[in-house]
């Protein structure tokens, strides 16, 4: 049987051997190269996770931007609809009518080239003007340039004489009224027809102020009696009427003396309305 001393020595050697083996294994584990594949997998997983987060954030940002744009577009559309509902819509051409006589579908046409027509007539094809119609138009425009006040008359008509007496004898206008005797004019009948078309007055006298008919003989008498004749002449003649007043007896006598002097000197009063 081995002695106690030998057993102790043997146990010590075993213990030392175990310690040496453990140290050796530990040194081998420390010197062994790292597993790059494991490290790469960890890196890839980390990068992929970050990219997923970024994509998710970008998608959320895009969604938010689109939502904002949509809200702005909706707001702009609503504002436009509100503005359109408040603003008046233009009438269609067929619904537009003129003022006064033009409102009931009749045609209004001014003088000296000024025209006013209803929408229906404006859309209708224009009738070609004849040579005679052109001559009448030119002559009428020429007459209207003579004076702001035009008296279309007939030399034998008592109503025309009544209107001329009031406008030429009872009142003083500057420029003086211009008289057109249609029965002595080469285009008298055509001019009267044209005036009927334009002013809706077929008879004489027909008194025009600045291209607007203010009536006939009865109208002149009525305005004279009411004291509104000068007011009407100034209203339509505007700045073209330099003077408008009633003649006094003194002025009448003075003008008669001047007229007698002219007759004695051989001068003749101009006959208006003739070519």
From TrEMBL:
Lineage, top ranks: Eukaryota, Fungi, Dikarya, Ascomycota, Pezizomycotina
GO cellular component entries: cis-Golgi network; fungal-type vacuole; Golgi lumen
NCBIfam families linked: GRX_euk
Region (Disordered): 73-133, 244-275
GO biological process, any: cellular response to oxidative stress
Record-given protein name: Glutaredoxin domain-containing protein
InterPro entries recorded: Glutaredoxin, Glutaredoxin_euk/vir, Glutaredoxin_subgr, Thioredoxin-like_sf
Keyword Membrane recorded: yes
GO molecular function: glutathione-disulfide reductase (NADPH) activity
Coiled coil location: none
Family annotation (Pfam families): Glutaredoxin
Glutaredoxin domain: residues covered: 149-211
Alphabetical keyword list: Membrane, Transmembrane, Transmembrane helix
Domain of life of the organism encoding this protein: Eukaryota
Record-annotated membrane-spanning stretches: 6-24
Comp. bias regions, Basic and acidic residues: 244-265
């Amino acid at each position: 049987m081995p002695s106690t001393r030998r057993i102790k020595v043997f146990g010590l050697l075993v213990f030392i051997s175990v310690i040496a083996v453990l140290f050796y294994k530990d040194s081998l584990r420390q010197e062994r190269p790292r597993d790059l594949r494991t490290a790469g997998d960890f890196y890839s997983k980390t990068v992929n996770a970050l990219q997923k987060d970024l994509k998710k954030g970008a998608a959320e940002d895009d969604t938010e931007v689109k939502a904002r744009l949509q809200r702005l577009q909706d707001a702009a559309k609503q504002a436009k609809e509100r503005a359109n509902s408040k603003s008046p819509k233009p009438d269609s051409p067929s619904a537009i009518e003129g003022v006064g006589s033009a409102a009931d579908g009749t045609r209004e046409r001014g003088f000296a080239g000024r025209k006013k027509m209803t929408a229906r007539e404006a859309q209708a094809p224009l009738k070609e003007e004849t040579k005679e119609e052109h001559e009448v138009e030119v002559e009428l425009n020429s007459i209207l340039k003579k004076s702001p006040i035009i008296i279309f008359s007939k030399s034998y008509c008592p109503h025309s004489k009544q209107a001329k007496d009031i406008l030429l004898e009872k009142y003083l206008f500057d420029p003086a009224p211009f008289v057109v005797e249609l029965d002595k004019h080469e285009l008298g009948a055509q001019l009267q027809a044209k005036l009927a078309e334009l002013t809706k007055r077929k008879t004489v006298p027909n008194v025009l102020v600045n291209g607007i008919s203010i009536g006939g003989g009865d109208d002149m008498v009525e305005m004279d009696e009411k004291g509104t004749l000068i007011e009407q002449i100034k209203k339509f003649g505007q700045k073209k009427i330099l003077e408008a007043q009633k003649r006094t007896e003194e002025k009448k006598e003075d003008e008669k003396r001047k007229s007698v002097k002219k007759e004695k000197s051989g001068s003749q009063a101009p006959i208006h309305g003739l070519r």
